[in-house]
Write a structure and sequence with these properties.
The protein is an alpha+beta fold. The protein has two domains: about 220 residues, Neurotransmitter-gated ion-channel ligand-binding domain (Acetylcholine Binding Protein, Chain: A, Distorted Sandwich); about 130 residues, Methane Monooxygenase Hydroxylase, Chain G, domain 1 (Up-down Bundle), CATH 1.20.58. The protein has nine helices and twelve strands. Strand 5 and strand 6 form a beta hairpin. Helix 3 packs antiparallel against helix 4, helix 5 packs antiparallel against helix 9 and helix 6 packs across helix 9. The longest helix is centred in the C-terminal third of the chain and has 62 residues. The radius of gyration is 48 Å and the shape is rod-shaped. The chain binds 2-acetamido-2-deoxy-beta-D-glucopyranose (2 copies).
């Protein structure tokens, strides 16, 4: 009885050794029991650990122009060989890979050197995968905030050159060598890898090129072997539509309004200036918007800033111009004398040049006859009354029929001659002062027309200045394309 019990127990124990014991745990203990994660995985001190690196970009989160920070979300694929983790899967129940916490094995300590927030390492310490033969791979995710000097000269038609610099923090070039990973076809992956399925497109930035280089610093002759850096460059181009819709189009439209000031008549007075000053104020708001967006650098002026300064200068010139034209338009003969030369240039030559002379000539031609005829009538009436007091004047037709009556009337008129003279003098005076008034009015309207002529020529000058300036500034933006670099495009 006791013998059968003993043999059953033995059998159980045997079975337990075969199946019940955790193979993974056994492998774990086999590999890590006398493992020191602080030691480099080399047998001889002069050996180098070769670490392959592959950076996969999953999201270009943002580029903060003001703080000059690029935020990216990446996966860092690091592979190396650790002879201490060599095992054969035949000995451990066919286990292909063992996952171990990253702090239990040696790590090459690759950090992002040009970070800006003290976050050198990865965001999440993922497990390390150990495969048969001692091959180790680690793929931790990371959110990096790296420094990126923003070049604002062509904002918002700019492209930026940002880089991610990786290096091993603790080991020099002789201890750890960094190389690029190799893909299934045997090609070196020196680009930042962008998996189109995992990648989330950024609304503001398009990635044009993303080459990587490995740079070895020799470190001088006496202070050791130096170190290796992997530098990934991201050439990103801004998609300008947002700024075109929200700033450039409104700004051009508002600035174009300033030209309307020239079409306001002189009677509108100060309104001419009000229009341009309002535009000037609106432009200041746009300038403020831009100033909030770009870094506070004095190294260069952004294109949009240059444009705003330009249109503000144009608006200021137009305000000054309006004041001067108003000064001309509102002159009167009592305060200013009009020089004939000025009059000739502004009222005759200029309208001819601009092809707008016709209406003023017509109005000039039309008005004198009316005046001449009324004046002429008066003069003729005066003449008749004075020279023919016994008037055949009004009664010529009736002379024969009412001879006696007419003679009587003539006598009465003759007697009243001094009063009629008085009357005629009064009429003459009225005529005289009307003539004076009309002359004054004509000179006032000449000044107004002179103002209009000035407005006319200044309008064309301002229009040309505005159009040429705007197109020159925006043409500069058009030619600011990313140069053709000797790299394959980043995204296919
Ligand atoms: C792993 O160890 C075995 C024997 O111990 C050896 O033959 C093999 O070459 C090692 N593998 C590697 C990749 O070093
Ligand atoms: C981007 O910057 C790096 C160094 O900061 C430089 O080597 C590279 O030539 C630049 N690329 C372009 C296209 O300017």
């Amino acid at each position: 009885m006791a013998g059968t019990l003993l043999s059953a127990l033995l059998l159980l124990q045997l079975l337990g050794r075969g199946e019940g014991k955790n193979e993974e745990l056994r492998l774990y203990h086999h590999l890590l029991d006398d493992y020191d994660p602080g030691r480099r995985p080399v047998q001889k001190p002069e050996d180098t650990v070769t670490v392959t690196l592959k950076v996969t970009l999953t999201n270009l989160i943002s580029l903060n122009e003001k703080e000059e920070t690029l935020t990216t979300s990446v996966w860092i694929g690091i592979d190396w060989h650790d002879y201490r983790l060599n095992y054969s899967k035949g000995d451990f129940g066919g286990i292909e890979t063992l996952r171990v916490p990253s702090e239990l094995v040696w790590l090459p300590e690759i950090v992002l050197e040009n970070n800006i927030d003290g976050q050198f390492g990865v965001a999440y310490e993922a497990n390390v995968l150990v495969s048969e033969g001692g091959y180790v791979s680690w793929l931790p995710p990371a959110i990096y905030r790296s420094i990126c000097a923003v070049e604002v000269t062509y904002f918002p038609f700019d492209w930026q050159n940002c880089s991610l610099v990786f290096r091993s923090q603790t080991y020099n070039a002789e201890e750890v060598e960094l190389v690029f990973a190799v893909d299934d076809d045997g090609d070196t992956i020196s680009n930042i890898d962008i998996d189109t399925e995992a990648y989330t497109e950024n609304g503001e930035w398009a990635i044009d090129f993303c080459p990587g280089v490995i740079r070895r610093h020799d470190g001088g002759s006496n202070d050791g072997p130096g170190d290796t850096e992997v530098i990934y460059t991201l050439i990103i181009r801004r998609k300008p539509l947002f700024y075109v819709i929200n700033i450039i189009v409104p700004c051009v439209l508002i600035s174009g309004l300033v030209l309307l000031a020239y079409f306001l008549p002189a009677q509108a007075g100060g309104q001419k200036c009000t229009v341009s000053i309002n535009v000037l104020l609106a432009q200041t708001v746009f300038l403020f918007l831009i100033a909030q967006k770009i870094p506070e650098t004095s190294l260069s002026v952004p294109l949009l800033g240059r444009y705003l300064i330009f249109v503000m200068v144009v608006a200021t010139l137009i305000v000054m111009n309006c004041v001067i034209v108003l000064n001309v338009s509102c002159r009167t003969p009592t305060t200013h004398a009009m020089s004939p030369r000025l009059r000739h240039v502004l009222l005759e030559l200029l309208p001819q040049l601009l092809g707008s002379g016709a209406p003023s000539e017509v109005s000039r031609a039309a008005s004198p006859p009316r005046r001449a005829s009324s004046l002429g009538l008066l003069l003729r009436a005066e003449e008749l009354i004075l020279k023919k007091p016994r008037s055949e004047l009004m009664f010529e037709g009736q002379r024969y029929r009412h001879r006696t009556w007419t003679a009587a009337l003539c006598q009465t008129l003759g007697a009243a001659a001094p009063e009629i003279r008085c009357c005629v003098d009064a009429v003459n005076f009225v005529a005289e002062s009307t003539r004076d008034q009309e002359a004054t009015g004509e000179e006032v309207s000449d000044w107004v027309r002179m103002g209009k002529a000035l407005d006319n020529i200044c309008f064309w000058a301002a229009l040309v200045l505005f159009l040429v300036g705007s197109s020159l500034i925006f043409l500069g933006a058009y030619f600011n394309q990313v140069p053709e670099l000797p790299y394959p495009p980043c995204m296919l």
